[in-house]
Please model this.
Amino acid sequence: MVKPVTQFACAECGAIHKKWTGRCDGCGAWNSIQEEVPLSSGPSKKSLGTAKGRRMALTSLDAQEAPPPRTESGIAELDRVFGGGLVPASATLVGGDPGIGKSTLLLQAAAAFAAKDAKVIYVSGEEATAQVRMRAQRLGLAGSAVKLAAETNLRDVLTTLEAEKPDLAIIDSVQTMWADTVDSAPGSVSQVRAVAHELTSFAKRFGTAIVLVGHVTKEGQIAGPRVVEHMVDTVLYFEGERGHQFRILRSVKNRFGPADEIGVFEMTGAGLQEVANPSEMFLGERDRPAPGSVVFAGIEGTRPLLVEIQALVAPSQLSQPRRAVVGWDGGRLAMILAVLEARTGVTFAGLDVYLNVAGGIRVGEPAADLAVACALLSAREDAALPEGTVVFGELSLSGRMRPVSQAETRLKEAAKLGFTAALAPEGCKTGDAGGMTLRLVPDLTTVVGEVFGAA
Ligand code: TYD
Ligand code: MG
Model:
């Protein structure tokens, strides 16, 4: 018998190496190489040119395709992130840090789908059934029709799923499942890949919606190669800051709906509760306008979201002043500081700069540029923006403002929450501004001069 050739794969980028090395040549990651046995026992010896395959049936693009039927859980925050409900025969990966609440969320989701007459199986590879049952009791879900199993052997899981044919199967987690066809430990690259592959093909063959739970590595990647993210239809991240109660379910990939959609939850003593109006929550602890604090009118997915951006500027004792960011991109902060200095002459040399998005949410939108610039200016000049003002706008390297999309939605949300004025780029399609006073600025120099009276 031919011994399968062992190879080494990088857990970060999936690059294949012949030998083990301390550092991956592909992505430069340290200590990420793991031994693995290839999935197939070897390639076919026939060349692709000589041995002909089956001829494929080709169709046209205009064939009528009904939209996929969807099942809603009734948890609105969850259904929206799924793009309007769960699609049969789909595979979803829910990633997140350990302890963030993935099992809690999925147990609640399982019960919600079961309450809609879906047949749901929850397989836990991490907890005993008694533990899951105890959690269900705590969540008030003890009467739910969800079927439960504690199992890590993938073969047994697949056999059971095939016999039961559930509408939804939740596998918690992909790292604890173990395929006996692969000769490495659970959680290794090849195991995770094999498990995800088997379960996604099961979903396609039997029409079951499969949800895989995955733990995220320190670097924020789902442990195992990115390959798993490519295999599934939908990738959701469950995120939140420790010390804050709220959690955000974010879709980063969705073959059946919009990506970048978020659902907001609050972790309470009785499980996760939906947060129907997140802006209210993120601004909840805000008091009167203070220097360095600016309210950014953002968009997350299809929804407007107001968040407070805080900056602190203080004389530095260090030869290289500190630049610290929480909830925003550090590179982008450096860019805004550089644009401020080069285009308006406001310098932050010799000053430590701290930037924080309040509440622990992460903002990724470039439309936050102007709000960040205003927070920095406001902190440096010790001057607060007028009360009731929201800010949005993208900044170009030339110091000019760029209009951003969905200005009207942003303004309406701000008006709804009692804001009365907005600082935004010229050229935004503001339409009906909801009664807000608009101050449209062409560039950063105008902001520095007219709004802060500096420079
Ligand atoms: P869990 O769902 O086990 O996290 P994960 O599966 O992502 O590892 O959630 C664990 C945390 O959630 C734990 O620290 C306790 C907290 N929690 C609550 O605050 N309230 C609850 O009702 C439940 C079930 C958990
Ligand atoms: Mg868990």
